[in-house]
């Protein structure tokens, strides 16, 4: 939006041309969403408290969590509103990738909002039934996958790229691309949601992975960098650095209130949306495998639930004291801040490994 204004003002002063630079708009995107989150955060927390939109706590979990009962939830709306406003202000709104990522984020956020609303307002412990949650996630995930396939401009945009191998690329075709994209988007959405169980545990890895994906977006959208690094050149993908920057700013702003002990929780409205956003961006820049590496904490949390459920159904025994795995470490005696910070450290290491694949080819 402001880019259009800057383009108009260039005829009066050439200095406004500086807003054409992605790096500047990325920085402005971070600052805008961060300021919005910090500004709106106290008001949103007070509003949630007034409406008595508080978190329910499992009685079979760590006893330390019982004190969190009633803490305002659905704070993910703060993140999404900050991201959306900042993205709309600083992005090139003629870019299709901006709109598809923003649409996926908000639509998955709507699914999470309905789930949270039924849990905390209607006092329905089930929330949105799983079958309907997955149905709508599937509808939006498949919609994004079909759109990206139909609008692909060259074969590389629908090819699976294997990192660290110069010539390892697998053409997916229509069915393969749509299926892979669906699983990446929906899987990422649910993986982040499963991770969101401790104060700040999910948001910081999301910020770190989102920032790294922003680097991939910038490089993939630049033909010279893409050719030099032997990564797919995806015209227009560079514009997503503004969205990734907005995600970083909004995430850090939310962490200000979500850090231990949390004043507000993200809820499904934030977790489902942010996970879907990461998955969609990874698909666009053809870095699904790198996302799997960088989001290793999300993967670990998801696998712990799968293993726990499968083991209990098949043998009647549990592998972990409690799933997702962050609760297992709590029940082993780790203080909550220790679990959180150590998972953050693991994410930093995995993100660095993911970024290293840019040169290891």
TrEMBL record:
It is a multi-pass membrane protein. InterPro entries: Glycosyl_transferase_4, PNAcMuramoyl-5peptid_Trfase, PNAcMuramoyl-5peptid_Trfase_CS. CDD domains: GT_MraY (cd06852). Pathway: Cell wall biogenesis; peptidoglycan biosynthesis. Its cofactor is Mg(2+). It is an enzyme of class 2 (transferase). It is found in: Cell membrane; Membrane. Keywords: Cell cycle, Cell division, Cell membrane, Cell shape, Cell wall biogenesis/degradation, Magnesium, Membrane, Metal-binding, Peptidoglycan synthesis, Transferase, Transmembrane, Transmembrane helix. The keyword Transmembrane helix applies. Its EC number is 2.7.8.13. GO terms for molecular function: transferase activity. Belongs to the glycosyltransferase 4 family. MraY subfamily. PANTHER family: PHOSPHO-N-ACETYLMURAMOYL-PENTAPEPTIDE-TRANSFERASE, PHOSPHO-N-ACETYLMURAMOYL-PENTAPEPTIDE-TRANSFERASE HOMOLOG. This is Phospho-N-acetylmuramoyl-pentapeptide-transferase. It comes from Serpens gallinarum. The gene is mraY.
């Amino acid at each position: 939006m402001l880019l259009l204004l800057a383009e108009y003002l260039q005829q009066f002063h050439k200095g406004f041309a500086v807003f054409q630079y992605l790096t500047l708009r990325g920085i402005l995107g971070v600052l805008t969403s961060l300021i919005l989150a910090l500004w709106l955060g106290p008001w949103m927390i007070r509003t949630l408290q007034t409406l008595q939109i508080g978190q329910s706590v499992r009685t079979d979990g760590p006893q330390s969590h019982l004190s969190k009962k009633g803490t305002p939830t659905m704070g993910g709306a703060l993140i999404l509103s900050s991201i959306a406003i900042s993205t709309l202000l600083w992005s090139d709104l003629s870019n299709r990738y901006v709109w598809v990522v923003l649409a996926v984020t908000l639509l998955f956020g709507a699914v999470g909002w309905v789930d949270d609303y039924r849990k905390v307002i209607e006092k329905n412990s089930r929330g949105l039934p799983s079958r309907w949650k997955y149905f709508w996630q599937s509808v939006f995930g498949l919609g994004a996958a079909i759109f990206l396939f139909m609008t692909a401009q060259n074969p590389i945009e629908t090819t699976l790229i294997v990192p660290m191998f110069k010539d390892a690329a697998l053409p997916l075709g229509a069915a393969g691309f749509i299926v892979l994209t669906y699983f990446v988007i929906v899987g990422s959405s649910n993986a982040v949601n499963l991770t969101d169980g401790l104060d700040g545990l999910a948001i910081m890895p999301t910020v770190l992975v989102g920032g790294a994906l922003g680097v991939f977006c910038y490089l993939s959208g630049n033909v010279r960098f893409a050719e030099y690094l032997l990564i797919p050149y995806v015209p227009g993908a560079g514009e997503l650095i503004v969205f990734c920057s907005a995600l970083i700013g909004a995430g850090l702003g939310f962490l200000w209130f979500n850090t231990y002990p949390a004043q507000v929780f993200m809820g499904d409205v934030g977790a489902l949306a942010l996970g879907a956003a990461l998955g969609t961006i990874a698909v666009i820049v053809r870095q699904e495998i790198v996302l799997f590496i960088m989001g290793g904490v999300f993967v670990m949390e998801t696998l712990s639930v799968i293993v726990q459920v499968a083991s209990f159904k098949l043998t009647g025994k549990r592998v972990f004291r409690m799933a997702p795995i962050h609760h297992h470490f709590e029940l082993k005696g780790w203080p909550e801040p220790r679990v959180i910070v150590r998972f953050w450290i693991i994410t930093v290491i995995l993100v660095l490994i993911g970024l290293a694949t840019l040169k290891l080819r």
